[in-house]
Amino acid sequence: MVGGGFFGCNLALMLADSSMRVLVVERDADLMQRASYANQARVHGGYHYPRSILTGLRSHANFSRFMREYAVAVDRDFTHFYAIARKFSNVTALQFARFCQEIGAPFRKAPSAVSRLFDRDLVEEVFEVTEYAFDSVKLKEHLLVRMAGRDIPLRLGTEARRATVGSRGIQVDMSTGSESWSATTRWLFNCTYSRINHLLHKSEVPPIPLRHEYTEIALIEAPEELRKRAVTVMCGPFFSTMPFPPAGTHSLSHVRYTPHYDWEERSGGGAPMMLDREAPGRASHCLNMIMDAKRFLPCLERARQVDSLWEVKTVLPQCEVNDARPILFKAHDEVPGLVSVLGGKFDNIYDLPRELQMLFSRAEG
Known about the structure:
Elements lengths: L5 H12 L6 E3 L15 E2 L9 H17 L4 E2 L3 E7 L7 H11 L3 E3 L2 H4 L7 E7 L2 E3 L1 H14 L4 E3 L1 E9 L2 E8 L2 E7 L2 E3 L5 H7 L7 E12 L7 E6 L4 E6 L4 E6 L4 E7 L6 H4 L10 H11 L7 E12 L12 E5 L5 E5 L9 H13 L1
Helix pairs in contact: 1-5
């Protein structure tokens, strides 16, 4: 298993449950330090996808399962509100309400004390929903305990540099610091998210067309009115602010200002500088986010930036149209047994068992 993020760890557990011997290799010094940490930490209830009802249905169906399995890592100590903008929104309040009804997601109009916080000239309606945040540090600790219980070894600070066809399976060349070593395996799962094509390129395997965004999520000290609240404004060039449990702050993201750069990767060479979070001339957009967000929610004028999370967000290009986030699960014929896995949301892990079953069935047939 190459990649010790949330997907790699869960996939390793699923394979171990199938009586396979699994080794997890992670380039960083610890698990879940990249995209698994640097995100909104939203436990999706389906509300976020009114332009893709299939994604909304799946997300809502997976919500209760995630809450059961990872209850120890979920922050429920706040109330989440979705506000529907009057202008430039892709949905109206009525359409959003109908969408919630169609996917079976609970909602109700926000109490007047909350509605009054918004500029009602810009906001058509505000709804209270059931959606929470996860603590990625607690999530990592929970996964480590489960992996230790399955005797899954970890090799941290280790990079898989190349995969080739060997006489006894896939030979994986790796490096740990100055030490170079190799291992042989029947299956190699590439769960390196934005760096998926890096391993493929080095292994002379055709790249997967991907779209990358170099993103900033601001961490803020929220005004008192938002301390136990989260707000998401739908559905267009707007913003979201919600508790970020690992730091004890709120996150602030904005459709327009969170992405700093974007590019499509088709050659496999990527943009290594950006993929390593070291983009030149990096300047925060937090002030821009606050200036725009306070038009809708004036109390955000008193928000104070504490820090920012910088990361590369990666999606399949066809996902840009309707917000769908299908899982990528691709077996590479050039190196039999090499499989690349990319999920857009944490609850995409529940798509993995079906994909594994089909993969192993094809291999046996």
